[in-house]
Amino acid sequence: MNIGIDIDGVLTNFERVMIDYGTKMSVEENWPINLNLNKYTEVKAFNWTDEQAEKFWNRYLVKYVTESDTRAFAPEIIKKLHKEGHKIYIITARDETGMPPEYYGRMQELTKAWLEKNNIQYEKLIFASNKAKLEQCIENQIDVMIEDCPGNILEIANKIKVIKFDCQYNKEIKGENVTTAYSWYHIYDIINKMKEE
């Protein structure tokens, strides 16, 4: 199978990082903490302005991109899937938005270095910022996409199977082509069952 894997929220615990660093920033900047964890973006989750979000990412984006831990067992399961003959496509919507000026233009380089540092095996790394993830999935003949973003899950599931990595902000997302996973070992089990179908 050709397996598409998102980075933020799937390989990393984006939700936890956003809460931890968002509340830290709010306290440091004396911004009110008004969290709604059912919302996907930091602007909506924290009820921030675009300017506040930009200040947040300017301060923490490079740290997040270069130092985040992987979700438990992600490298191990990807290695197993790869060894069993599956092809791994990392498909991310990461772009330069929020990058501090001194790092602008380096998102792809920093992302590749992080994947290498964390021993994430893949055939191809795709930055889908200029093209919808669904288009990238179709173009690369993806059989199943592992995703957390509510909008992407719904769009991709119209054509391709999606494994939704469970997060607070996507709990309400359901669909015929959507299977919820709660861990990387759960993802492995779901993929093995898909193979048998």
Description:
The structure is a single chain. α3 (50-67) runs parallel beside α5 (107-117). The protein has 8 helices and 6 strands. It has helices at 14-29, 42-46, 50-67, 74-83, 107-117, 133-139, 150-156, 184-196, and strands spanning 2-5, 87-92, 124-127, 144-147, 161-165, 178-181. The chain is globular. Strands 3-2-1-4-5-6 form a 6-stranded parallel β-sheet, with helices on both faces.
Summarize the structure.
The protein has 197 residues and is of the alpha/beta class. Helix 3 (50-67) runs parallel beside helix 5 (107-117).
Count of helical segments? Answer: 8
User: How many angstroms separate the termini?
Assistant: 12 Å
Q: Flag low-confidence runs.
A: none
Strands across the major sheet, in which order?
3-2-1-4-5-6
* Classification by helices and strands: alpha/beta
Q: How would you state the average pLDDT, rounded?
A: 95
Q: What share of residues are in beta strands?
A: 5-15%
Percent range of helical residues: 40-55%
Order of helices and strands: EHHHHEHEHEHEEH
- Please give the radius of gyration in angstroms: 17 Å
For this structure, the quaternary state is single chain
Shape: globular
Q: Give a short account of the largest sheet.
A: 6 strands, parallel
How many runs of DSSP E, i.e. beta strands?
6
